[in-house]
Amino acid sequence: MRPHDTQTLLPAHDYDLAATLSSGQAFRWRERDGWWEGVIGARWVRLQHRDDQGIAAETAVPQNDWQWLRDYLQADLDLDSVLRTFPDDEPMRASVAACRGLRLLRQEPWECLASFILSSTKQIVQIQQIIGLLCERFGAPLPTPPGRAPLHAFPTAARLAAASEGELRACKMGFRAPNLLATARQVADEKIDLKSLRLCSVEDARERLVQLPGVGPKIANCVLLFACGFPQAFPVDVWVMKALRQLYFPKRRPSPARLRRFVATHFGPNAGYAQQYLFHYMRLNGRAAPQQTSTAARRRA
DNA sequence: TGCCAGGGCTGGG
DNA sequence: CCCAGCCATGGC
């Protein structure tokens, strides 16, 4: 790789770029002309997986160091060493077989937190729309390649803290607007230091996150897993709940406490990684789930 | 306890 | 075409 180039090729084994970028961890990636286009920090970038070579990357502005991209993609992580820690049971084997190469990204904490506050009771498509509007209206403009539509960085907490609730509601986020605004103010006022959460114990970090308005256990776990680097954090949403019920408790309906104990003990030190595989597996098979007894499952089939 | 609060997409009628 | 359902959190 030459210095000050707008292109590079990152060596990466066992990396399913499409699954990773579309798996509901991050919301600003779009596929276009066989590339995945997005924004990381203040950089426009597009990515393309090349068999046996790795991940090709192009930026709008020359780079002399691509560490920011390796960090974001976690390209240097040895996936096998993670997969080896998964429990050796049928649901995990099936989930890994369905999308081997699925990875966790390492996102910027504020963007991750704000995005997941906006994610509550929304589906991925709508989350993308809200975040698109938010970036367009409040994010700093970024250099893009010639002939490309202008693009914006994710808005800073300070910028959103200075917005009105009405302006945020105009981005179609509905009742999440006051939560996002109040959390942006706390972050901007340094009531919480998101970057230092990774230095806490996972329990301490979670406790601090759930103090923020609009942040419950599910969203806190998303931030811990996708931004703070806690591989044991285990967000439980409806898809994961469905996976746990169908795959591990097909007969009885476990209590929430029992379920919490199960996920805390069964999946090992990389439980969050295991969760991502279950989530993706359920999303792939959700429509055609074979073992349905509930009306909800039958309606889906 | 149970309902409700945006809203855009999906599936079924 | 229309309409119910989806969805994680907080407030009532």
The main sheet comes to: 5 strands, antiparallel
- Name the beta content range: 5-15%
> Given the structure, what is the number of helices?
15
Low-confidence stretches: 287-301
Report the structural category: alpha+beta
- Gross morphology is globular
Percent of residues in helices: 40-55%
- Rg, alpha carbons: 20 Å
Q: How many strands in all?
A: 7
The succession of helices and strands, N to C, reads EHEEEEHHHHHEEHHHHHHHHH
Query: Going across the major beta sheet, what is the strand order?
Result: 1-5-4-3-2
How would you state the average pLDDT, rounded?
90
Could you tell me how far the N terminus lies from the C terminus, measured between alpha carbons in angstroms? 49 Å
Structure notes:
It is a single chain. With 301 residues, the protein is of the alpha+beta class. The protein has helices at 17-21, 67-73, 79-83, 90-98, 109-119, 124-138, 157-161, 165-173, 176-188, 202-209, 217-226, 238-248, 256-266, 271-285, 295-300, and strands spanning 5-10, 30-32, 35-40, 43-50, 54-63, 141-142, 151-152. The protein has a five-stranded antiparallel β-sheet. A two-stranded antiparallel sheet has the order 6-7. Strand 3 (35-40) and strand 4 (43-50) form a beta hairpin. It binds a DNA duplex (13 and 12 nucleotides) through helix 6, helix 8, helix 9, helix 11 and helix 15.
Question: Any key phrases for this structure?
Answer:
five-stranded antiparallel sheet; single chain; DNA-binding; two-stranded antiparallel sheet; alpha+beta; about 300 residues; about 10% strand; globular; 15 helices
